[in-house]
Amino acid sequence: MVIFYHGAAFDREGLRCNNIAMKALVAFYSRTGNTKKAAEAIAKELGADLEEIIDHNKRSGIIGWLYAGRDAMKRMLTAIDKPKKDPAAYDLVILGSPLWAFRSYAPAVRTYMTENRGAFKKVAFFLTKGGSAGDKAIADMKETCGKHPITVLELLEKEVKSGSMADKIGPFCRSLKS
Ligand SMILES: Cc1cc2nc3c(=O)[nH]c(=O)nc-3n(C[C@H](O)[C@H](O)[C@H](O)COP(=O)(O)O)c2cc1C
Predict the structure, then answer these.
(1) Contacts with 98 (C-beta within 8 Å, 6 or more apart), sequence order
(2) CATH code for the domain of 112
(3) How do residues 106-134 score in pLDDT, each as one tens digit?
(4) In ligand 1, which atom is closest to the CA atom of 132?
(5) Engineering a disulfide at 47: which of 4, 7, 14, 154 sits with its beta carbon 3.0 to 4.6 angstroms away?
């Protein structure tokens, strides 16, 4: 999907302005659906494509939860499905992850960023989380990605579930065109 950048309104073709067309991709990992819900809302608002990053480790149950926290804390990589879309074909890639282990994020997103480090032109980040501060995880994402994000967004799990995330997603998406 093509995004036209500048100052005008969103429509079905994305942001439209000044004939400057930009392609955007929202690439995300989600274990329990919150980050997926946020990713879909962002992609809809921007008219962007979606790439769900699939971890071969399903991280289910209490054991899965425990190892997920440990792997995130240790900044470990994991095996992921080959992406369906080439991030190098996009002007902007918006990367989304759940916040894990207070200062980290999902190994699947770390792996995606590491494997595609040279492919990103512009990036933005978003996190979903229970309630911790996200600044350390965002700093870690910047380091892994090798790019400074245009902007970042942190959403509480309760904002995702209630739908009040829309109040933050609107300004986040608008800041991507400025
Ligand atoms: C292993 C693990 C560790 C987590 N650690 C934190 C944390 O340190 N701080 C926090 O605010 N939320 C933490 N969470 C909560 C998730 O960030 C939150 O539920 C998120 O919205 C889940 O996204 P998802 O549904 O896309 O997987 C953790 C969740 C898991 C599974």
Answers:
(1) 29, 30, 31, 32, 34, 35, 105, 106, 127, 128, 129
(2) 3.40.50.360
(3) 999 999 999 999 999 999 999 999 999 99
(4) 11
(5) 14
